[in-house]
Structures are given as C-alpha cells and as structure tokens.
Design a protein that fits this description.
By secondary structure, the chain is an all-alpha fold. It is built from four helices and no strands.
Amino acid sequence: MKKAAIQLSTERLEIRLTPAEKKFLKLKARKSGFTSMADFIVSLAEEKPLHDSRYDKLFFESLDNIAFVLHKTGVNINQATHVLNIQKLQGSVSNETVTGFMALLSDFNKKQEDLFYILNKIRFQ
C-alpha cells in the first residue's frame, strides 16, 4: 500500500490586519494548540472544531485519576475475595454467597477492562 505523498507548503498568502487582529489570531491559535498560523488558518477554513489546549492537561490528569481509582478498586475487590475464600474454607460463609460474589466480581472485571480500554483509546488517540 502506497503512503500518501507529503505536500510541502510552498505558497504564501499575505493579508493585512490591525495589530489587535493579529494579536487576537495569534492568541487564539496558541490557545487552540497550534504552533503555526498557517495550520490555524487552514483549520479554520476547513471548519475543523477548535479546542482550548489549556484544558488538555486537566483532561489527561482526570483520565489518570479515573484509571488510578479503577486500579485501587480492583485491589480492594481482590482483598475482599481473599477474605471471602478464607471464610469459605473455615465454613463461615455459604457456597451460594461465594458464587454470587464471584459473579459480581466477573461483571466488575469485564466493565473495568472495558473502561481501561476506552481510557487508553482516548489517551493515546
């Protein structure tokens, strides 16, 4: 399969702006994560949605926090499973209770895996 050829930017476009307009456009481009005014203007012309890159750090920190809490929840559930199995061996808990808990644990693990998959997909997209 052939890769798409990379097109070099060789053309120039000059426009006149007031100093305030130029400052506004540069600020808007920087806040949206653009390092190039050309990329910013082309993106606007293509009507691509802009985002404020200042929120990227907060967004990814939130994703990391969610992943951390999911991990800790899994650790706590594993500890509860260990205690439940000990109680089963000691005869202080019924097989039905253990079976019900294991079914809940299986559901949780599946949902946790799905969430980790989604978080990683968002994070590395």
